[in-house]
Amino acid sequence: MSYADQKETKASSINVKAILWGILPLILLIAIIATIAKVGTGIENEPAAPIEVLNVEKITLSDDGIQVKVLNSGPEEITIAQVVVDGAFWNAEFTPSDSLKRFERGTINIPYPWVQGDPHEVKLITSNGLIFTGEVAAAAATPTPTGKLFAQYALIGFYVGVIPVGLGLLWYPFLRRFSVKGMHVILSLTIGLLFFLVIDTFEEGFEMAAEAPGVFQGTGLVWFGALLSCLFLIAVDQSNDRKLSSRTLEGSRVSRKIATGIGLHNFGEGLAIGSAFAVGEAALGTFLIIGFTLHNITEGVGIAAPLLKDRPNLRTFVTLALIAGGPAIIGTWAGGFIFNDTLAALFFGIGAGAILQVIYVISKMILKESAKRNLSPVSWLNFGGLTAGILIMYITALMVKF
């Protein structure tokens, strides 16, 4: 055997040993976990009470009665022994069964004569005596998916998202009249708008997380979604910096980023509107439509701000309005037909992260331009623009909060 062959054989032997040392801890870990699962910990204390968690995910009202969708998010199998509606025991049909394994979903059909406008309470009693409750604040027939309703929800999303953002973009010719310092003020105002949106998005995400099954760690999903989406977009941004010119980066591309972040936020607004109509609160849904429409017109200003040095065409503005406003249509559909608290919490987190990344990009633009022209990046004018952006969003949000 030649010296080269001996050297190659020795290297292969070293690689095999390294791989074995890498696998050995995993094998031992699996063995330990298997042993604990089979033998147990040796502690024989019985729990003081059974550990059961049953989440009421959705209550639907129809001519046939009340339909309750539930999820067993506890560690053990659950058997629903009795159903109580408004204090009276009631017969019910269970699909697939009255017993649900861990993470299994079920549907309970209750032939109960609910009354329009009245509050109703459904209690589910397990075989171990634990009680889980679902409530209907004001009874109304749940909308069934039809082509007409699908189109109506789409029109609502268009009113709330696309139209107000488009109207805000109409301020572009006026904004172009500003000097360099004036452009920085407008960009600072944009950061103020986005600061308010990111806080609002986090708050809405945490509200959804509170309603989601605890086993899915909804609050963690909001934070994880925000962190990962922000870092992912920053990584993509840095990768594209090598391929695109500075002008392209600071113009159309940044506006698209802003529009994308705002679009994710507007998806959440669509969820709120669709959910309000789905549970029969038409007055609340109409109130939200008016409030969000007035609130969202200011978003167009923020999207237009990075374009002040460019000469975009009509197609660019239409595209930006659709990117920022279009998700409101999808959100309205999702809220009205397939709403899920856990996924909503994750999506709000992703939206918050996307907006944070846009704030980072715009801040870099201001710092870079200020250094180039020997201007103060944190001047009183810029501070005033930032404050004005937050105040504008806060005041218009008063028309939505209740």
What does this structure look like?
- The longest helix is centred in the first third of the chain and has 37 residues.
- About 1% of the residues have low confidence.
- By secondary structure, the protein is α+β, with helices and mostly antiparallel strands.
- It has 2 domains: 83 residues, Sandwich (Immunoglobulin-like); 255 residues, no CATH class.
- Helix 4 packs antiparallel against helix 8 and helix 4 runs parallel beside helix 11.
- The radius of gyration is 28 Å and the shape is flat.
- The protein contains 11 helices and 9 strands.
- A hairpin with a 2-residue loop joins strand 1 and strand 2.
- Helix content is 62%, strand content 13%.
- Strands 3, 4, 6, 8 and 9 form a 5-stranded antiparallel sheet that branches. A 4-stranded antiparallel sheet has the order 1-2-7-5, with no helix packed on it.
Please identify the structural class as seen in this structure.
alpha+beta
Q: Work out the number of β strands.
A: 9
Overall number of structural domains:
2
Q: Tally the helices: what do you get?
A: 11
Rg over C-alpha atoms, rounded to the nearest angstrom? 28 Å
What overall geometry do the principal axes of the alpha carbons give? flat
Q: Which sequence of SSEs, written as H and E, runs from N to C?
A: HEEEEEEEEEHHHHHHHHHH
| Biggest sheet overview | 5 strands, antiparallel
Spans of at least 5 consecutive residues whose pLDDT stays below 50 are: 244-249
